[in-house]
Amino acid sequence: MTAVTARAHTNIALVKYWGKADTDLIIPQTSSLSLTLDQFYTDTTVAFDATLTTDTVTLDDTRLSTTASQKVHRFLDLVRQRSGETRFASVTSTNHVPTAAGLASSASAFAALAGAASRAAGLDLSRADLSRLARRGSGSATRSIFGGFVEWQAGHDDQTSVAVPFQEHVDWPIAMVALLLDPHHKKISSRQGMQSSVTTSPYYPAWKQVVAADLAAIKPAILAQDFTATGEILEANAMRMHALTLSANPPYSYFNGDTLTAMQTVRHLREAGVASYYTLDAGPNLKVFCQTPDLPAVTTQLAAQFGANRVVVAHPGPGIQFL
Ligand code: DP6
């Protein structure tokens, strides 16, 4: 029995993935583009063990129930099918987030699990194949195999739906400031939320056009290190994704009161000459995109308003590592 440990970092999408074309294979409706972050990551150790009578999953020192670990069991079944491994596995996972608040992510979790489980089962997968495998656990995990700016090309089947590095080594003094507004689990998971947007929002067809245009515009902006263009695109893209939740039936929202206040704060910073733009995923927490010289102004303002313990500065981070 060989134990393998892998580390994967979370990523924040600048052009979002919000909707599946195939819910079983997790093929998205559109491509997406993200930045991997250095501050938030998951370490996962997997060992297949002939003495086990079931897969066991321990997350941050707590053994998960069979129901809570259902997605992990299904994922390990995939790895067993592919490798011929027949034993059950023990999975031990630790989320590294600077405060114990709301930034645990399925992206880093399934990327690390894909790496550790495939190697422990004797597979030696390329990074592209790891990306395809991680996708089966959670769509956003497909991008966390790579560092820096990453594009998930939607594709149309298991082979073609895969992430590719867009700019792995980022030589651009930028930061993402995470503002933790609510540590609680979301009531509507991204999985449920995006499905309801696809099937009930009348704006969904327009979203697909928005994403195509945003991807075409953000790539040259990133390559040119055009901060304003990149910021404007990522903020508008996030708001348009959230418009799909408001326009779903039944309508819902991931925002809370603090989210709206924080958005206003970022707009005020901008008006005062501190260039910064926000994005947010399926939850109330904001990530504020800014340039390194503006970090003190951004963090001071957010800390004064929301508390210093809620503000975490992240930079571009690396792809998957084996420890
Ligand atoms: C808003 O990857 O969590 O963060 O594929 O169903 O596991 P599943 O969804 P998930 O959705 C991420 C949605 C998002 C946008 C993004 O990361 O692109």
Automatic annotation (TrEMBL):
UniProt keyword terms in alphabetical order: ATP-binding, Lipid biosynthesis, Lipid metabolism, Lyase, Nucleotide-binding
Molecular function via GO: diphosphomevalonate decarboxylase activity
Residues in Diphosphomevalonate decarboxylase-like N-terminal domain copies: 8-163
EC number: 4.1.1.33
Keyword ATP-binding (UniProt): yes
Protein family according to the UniProt entry: Belongs to the diphosphomevalonate decarboxylase family.
Name of the molecule in the record: diphosphomevalonate decarboxylase
Organism field: Levilactobacillus angrenensis
The gene coding this protein: mvaD
